[in-house]
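Case study.
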Amino acid sequence: MAAQWDTSRYLSLFVSEATEHLDALGKELVRLEGGVTPEAIDSLFRHAHSVKGMAGSMGYDPTTALAHSVEDLFERVRSAPARFDRAVADLVLQAVDALGGHVKAANERKPFPDNTALIAQLKELTQSLRPGTTPLPSAPPANAPLLETAGGPESELPPRWLVTLRVATHSAQPGVRGFLAYKRLASLGNLFRCTPSLDEVKAGRLPGGTFAVELESTEPEAAVAKTVSQVADVELVSLTRVASAPPPPAPEETKGTEPEPRVVGQEPPRTVRVRTELLDEFLDLAGELMLATAGVREVGRSLQEELRGRLNETTDRLHGLVRGLHDKVMKARMTPVSVITDRLPRAARDIARRRGREIELILSGSEVELDRAIVDELSDPVLHLLRNAIDHGVEPPEERRMRGKPPRGTVKLSVKRASDRVLLEVEDDGRGMDVERLKALAVERGLLTAEAARDLPEREALMLSTAPGLSTAASVTDISGRGVGMDAVKKAVEAVGGTLEITSRRGLGTTFRLSLPLTVAMVNLLLVGLGDDVYGLPIAKVAGVVETTRASLAHSRDVPVLQFGASVVPARELSAVLEVPGRPHDVAAVSPFVVVDTDDGRVALAVDALLGQEEVVLKALTRPLDQVPGLAGVTVLGNGRPVFILDVARLERPNRLPAVGEA
Amino acid sequence: MRHVIFFLDRDRYALPLDAVREVVNAPESYSRVPHAKDAVKGVMTLRGRVVPVVDLGRLLALGLQPPGKGKVVLLELVRRELGLLVTEVEGIESIEKVGPQGRASRMVRGLARVGPLTVTVLDVEGLDAAVTASFSSEPERNR
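After joint prediction, the assembly is written out as follows.
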């Protein structure tokens, strides 16, 4: 049961992501007409590679095979960009369309179309591009029906339509529009005889703004019209049945009997793309809702028993709903680690080649999901760990042979879910880290006394490699020997609330283990100093800062007030609001007053110092800290110091706010 | 059952070893918790985690001087930790029989003998409840 549910869940992810990559591939191919650069080929390669990887993880072997031959072709083209010509582009486009057919088939749980011929063609072309060969004479014309007919067993050909399309004259990119329409139609079936040719269409050379193509498809007329209508600036001029080579089995289809109501078949179902900022805003709002619910509960405490019971019941229900909403928002933010790992095989190959290493990279668990903020933050650190493993971990092949190891080193990157954490490990079978040398270096740089170094347990000694300026690299290389990298990795991991652990055995290899939280919430803070303490005020609630002396405050009904813009706001000592000891202050000295928006209106809070602005990860408060009124959460600053984030909106709830000078 | 034996000033106390995660040196400074009662030292970070710390002598209202530097005994509770500031940790002893003691407190289970010495055995749940109360602004204060 669970497995069933999982498959369908991953299927929709596969469909939307593969479609995205294929669309991008198609788009970039068209753009390449201008000029070919190795970077552009790299990008094409990555798309093909991603599709291959995704298909592989879904167990779609035919799709993997097809994507693999496209990838091989790009690999070859990369070393000879000049050989990338129309013929290559056309064949790749066909493969892209065929892959699109695979995705469609997967989505509808139908058998995959057979592409043996196409794969053979791709291989042949790849072969012919070998260094030292001459370009292939010329590939078949782009509009030749090279695509195999989808669907194996039934030999009857589907009906054929002559589709005539017009691209609006005001369209900025008629070529792209026309090509998009062509590609959309290709998702419905097989295309033949594009007039003018597809190249002409792509170039935007459309006599009278129209072009025509023959479509062989089992889809109803309405689906064709709908598909065309999804492309901006393109309209359907006419759709007529034409006779295809073997006379079509006309009768049943002409009445317009729909095979099945799947008019939306060509769109990935049930997924939408959302701006990531919007996801962040959702999360903020859900968080605010939770705090607001807690506020309601707080109010209830002052009610009589009977009323309180009824209010609590409703509040409990409200809390449950808000909690559910929060969970859903968090879920929507979950992103598979593959977003990072998909590019690693390619990167590993590059690094290994440059450093003269032989590497096998084994990825596992890339489907594990994390909050997108964490995934974003991890991208560089993970790449850095991979570089380290290859560059500093794995020995050159000759050295490995001498040590009796296989010449090819193995780097494993595995991701596992462990209760509410995600463990990401980068493990190599290289030379391991030299603990004694690390210690010696640390002593030399004055990070440790010789005595402390001697007593330092191995686990902590290994962590010395993350100290700024330390590295076991024998030489400073262009890849990772600069000794700044591990420091940054550790910082990035800790910034998202994770921890880094290193285990290493001399001669056998090193493992970096990242333990990461599933989710985070970010908040932008204004840090203020109060005596020796630091508190965070969410920037969103800060209206402004005024620097003035306490003596210069005006009074309104005995309450000190601060002029802020055109209005006056009551002024308080933050120390008194929080009931923490304040520093004695000189009424004639200038102090910062932070004007914040509370639920009861604006208030100016006197603080000792402004310490700057920082975006931090908000940690939820656990008991007993969640009992403290007026706190929204806690965070740990870069210096390891815990800082409370004030729930500005409800600061004054616990007590009446004492005025400045009173406390 | 094995217990961690520690000092508050010169008196010995015990907590079941099962409930103790680890003992660490008290930090140089704490971050102050707003509105908290006197027994609350503040919060410290330990390997990225934020841990509340309570002066155990104050919590038990023993009228002791706060320990100079001291040790923090970390209690492991369900998915959270709690630090208790004590004077020094002595070691681990087996305690089987806990007898009644005069002072009625939910924080104290009773007295036990370890060799020739008497130790006060504390109650983890009672401590937790008292700590939680000392972090909330209710009920005694301001009313």
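Observations recorded in class. Residues 1-139 of chain A form a domain with the Four Helix Bundle (Hemerythrin (Met), subunit A) fold (CATH 1.20.120.160). The mean pLDDT of chain A is 78. We will return to this complex in the next lecture.
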